[in-house]
Amino acid sequence: AGAETVKRAVQLDAATRFQESLVCYQEGIDLLLQVVKATTDEAKKHRYRQKISEYMTRAEDIKKHIEKEKEDGKYHKQIRIEENATGFGYEKLFHEYLTEIVSEVWVQDPYIRQVHQASRYSLYNFLRFCEMLVKAPCKVKTIHLLTSYDVGSGRSQQLSVLEEIKQSLSNYGVTLNIDFSSSIHDREIRFNNGWMIKIGRGLDYFKKPQGHFSIGYCDFDLRPCHETTVDVFHTKHTKKM
């Protein structure tokens, strides 16, 4: 398993998919270290250690390259979330970009409106996102939400829920500014440290839970996902037209 994982790392490395390659190198190295511990043949141990040393050096080089790209604002990371995949809670996606200087967040999503629908829990998802920001090591003071009005009788419920979230956030010293637009279609999240995350489905990439007491109802890391793509950019490397 270790050899196969490292082989995959080398392939991704050659394809310049450095972020994915780094993960595979790290996993492969851990697996090979376990093999070394279980091996009694000293000659084999020596060969494994040589290979592990080579892979560790390459992994460290890739890590430095990624950090340099982040500093220069040239970093672009793409995450493909597969259908029914788990382990993609908001902390998983956003944590590394919520540095200590983040104090302001912009959320643009036209569908932060349905409480109950066949597969959408958008307002609950937005609340969960806000909870993640409140718990984050940074000190978020302001959240800007740009969304669209719900249609028909759903509008009053939408406004009521958003007002409740706004009041609750104020108890934690966070101001929620809410604006509505009938023409927005794009979905993106921006932090005032320059990072911008675009998710194909916005915050609503989780599947409906099986029940109110099913695993994954509260912990989004355990909730199956819809297939979607996440793109991470830095504004220093984006051109405005």
From TrEMBL:
UniProt-listed CDD domains: MIT_1, MIT_C
Limits of the MIT domain: 1-73
TM helices/strands, residue ranges: none
SUPFAM superfamilies: MIT domain (SSF116846)
Pfam families (alphabetical): MIT, MIT_C
Name listed for the protein in its UniProt record: MITD1 protein
Organism for this UniProt entry: Struthidea cinerea
